[in-house]
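Task 17 of the worksheet. Students: predict the tertiary structure of the chain below and write it out as structure tokens. Keep your answer in the requested format; marks are given for formatting as well as content.
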Amino acid sequence: MRFAAMLLICIGLLFVSFFGIWAIKEDEVEANLWHKSECRLLTFDKERAGADIARPLNEQQGLMWCFCEEQFNELGNEALSLTFDDG
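Model answer:
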């Protein structure tokens, strides 16, 4: 009886640990999708950012993130109202 209880506790801990690590990994993957670039260029223009975000997901360089960050630093909350032409 005692052995069975210990076995169930160990299996439960392994189960929780596995899914905890899996959840953290998924969170990191999502974070990397949003912030792909270290923004090392001096300036980012709207056209390059728009062209980058239009590329397939695995080819994007994160220029939109850098452009938006740069605009927010310059304009503050006004940057939230910037729009892009869709075509």
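Marker's comment: The chain has a mean pLDDT of 81. The CA atoms of residues 22 and 28 lie 10 Å apart.
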